[in-house]
Amino acid sequence: MSTPPWTTDRIRERVQALGPWFHNMDLGGVQTAPGHFLGDYPNVKWRRFQDSLPADLGGKTVLDIGCNAGFYAMEMKRRGAARVLGIDYDEDYLAQARFAAEVQGLDIEFRQMSVYDVGQLGERFDVVFFIGVLYHLRHPLLALDLIREHVAGDLLVFQSLQRGSNAVLPLAEDYEFWETAIFDDPGYPKLHFIERSYSHDNTNWWAPNAACSAAMLRAAGFGVEANPEDEVFICRTAPLPDARYGAVYPSRGKEARP
Predict the structure, then answer these.
(1) Domain total of the chain
(2) Is 156 within a domain?
(3) Of 41, 47, 45, residue with least CA distance to 26
(4) What is the per-residue pLDDT across 224-256, written as a single tens digit (0 to 9) for each?
(5) Residue 200 — left, alpha, or beta (φ > 0 → left; ψ -120 to 50 → alpha)?
(6) Is residue 157 a contact partner of residue 76, using CB atoms and an 8 Å limit?
(7) 123-143: pLDDT as tens digits
(8) Domain membership flag for residue 130
(9) Contacting residues for 201 by C-beta, under 8 A, at least 6 apart
(10) 196 within domain boundaries
(11) Domain range enclosing 126
């Protein structure tokens, strides 16, 4: 038996049943989160960096890590990506994403999976989105290492909540042990630790400043090509800057990956 068409009333009923939504999307004239505290989010942010990505993704593969309700996965499918996979740890978000894709007639795969498990995918993707995830993780640099080692084929689109200075201090390769003042400079990379809660959300663990976001990306083997929006970095995979960098895996004992 074929599924009846998605009328406005059916869409509105389903949107309410799957709520609350963090991604505001227009599904057949029904807004999923019209009262979002950030406005028309994430479209309001997307408009500020959308031109930094290829308009035509024909033949490309895309992985959206922490896809939430699938806004970015759907934008990539609209640009012609041959295959789009969205992963998220939260099954409620995935239910929203599957519904939104169905209503819009977009062929996108969604799986329940943590960023720490991306090695299980066994493939690399031309474009990887890592939006709004890093600051929710207890082990953020490990996540970037795993993305670089296992799934990033070329382009990484990264975004994190940032707090502190937007200044970026040019740093020397090394500093003497007694040099301490450098750490107090607002432009030095800082990853602020949130012990309990921030913005009424106890899954917010970290808040990097701008210098720290860029430095963590470089340390994980990503070259920053553009910073089109305060919190967004467009990166390409690059050689690791130093053999000592990268995650140490228990299966390898004390050996760090090259």
Answers:
(1) 1
(2) yes
(3) 41
(4) 999 999 999 999 999 887 655 555 554 444 444
(5) left
(6) no
(7) 999 999 999 999 999 999 999
(8) yes
(9) none
(10) yes
(11) 8-24+34-166+178-252
